[in-house]
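I am writing to request your help with a piece of structural work I have in hand. The matter concerns a single protein, recorded as an amino acid sequence and a row of backbone structure tokens. Could you please explain, in whatever detail you think fit, how the structure tokens follow from the sequence? Thank you for your consideration; the sequence and its tokens are set out here:
>
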Amino acid sequence: MVVNRGRSLLIAGLLGVIGWNSALQAASSLTAEQNRLARMEQVQENRLVELEDIENEMLAYEYKLQRAQESLSKARENYQQSLVELKTAEREHKGAPSTDTERALHKARHAHDMAERGVDSRNRRVEIIQSNFAELEQRLKDSRESVAAGKARLASQQTLVDSLVNAMLSEANTKAQAKKVEQAKSASPAVAMSQPEIPEPTLASLAPAEEAAPAAAEAAMAQEPVREIDPELLEYVRGERERLEKLLGELEEGEEGKHTFRNLTLRPSGEDAIEFEFLGQNQYKLIAPVSSGRQTYKINSWRFRRTIPSDDDGERYVFIFDARRLSRPRLVMYPEYVLSHLD
């Protein structure tokens, strides 16, 4: 990948300036922190997807609550009207009883009972929606706080990565200056007069000191630290699996729920299309290897941007496409190897 190649060139250049041990130790630290930064970016993207989903769900519940309250208001009006008609029918039957007044009284009582049930059922619906809406408000608050905390973590980690790069360049610069002084002392005056000035090393100007350096740097990069499983990623995957299991569990045996797409494909940048498998309830799944870096995934006419850490290059990822809201569909994706850490 481009990021890895750039890092390898930086390390190769530093090998010729600050020595093998120092460069490789610095490279190992830098690699670990850059991978940790990419993991944080991945988790933050998941948080933002979840936040957007909660916001969309709240909009839907606001509409549901408005409709339910309007329905309750009409039911109450109908109840009051049925009560008036019942009292009228009772009065008329009491004043001049007949089969007609008895029939009218029976009809009025039935209408009143139905109107009362209508109020009760609509009132319960409003209460359920209000309860769910309150839960969503709390989830929205928690999600926004989580996004804010993640943003702060990302900024802090980026600062750490930048400081490691700057420290490597600073050490290279210091040793290059010391080398210049030593060369000036050991050289004859005539040679010293013609000695070209050695420029200070920069990230852009560092080049391999010898032909073997890039290969050595690549070998150093191959010694990646043990992969970390971010606790927040674990929680995200666990939550998404529970959501999917609950949604599919609502289906009766033999049912599959809404099936909008007969042909749904994922097309990673510059690669062939891969077909999704329909799970039920407008949920679609596939598992495919990914490439590291900032990636664009095209699903039919939708595009989704995601960050893949460098140590996940070539790893198999689970893709879940949630198409319940076609105006704002969701793409859930996570490394397949995380599943073995859930239990």
In short: Residues 292 and 308 are 5 Å apart (CA to CA).
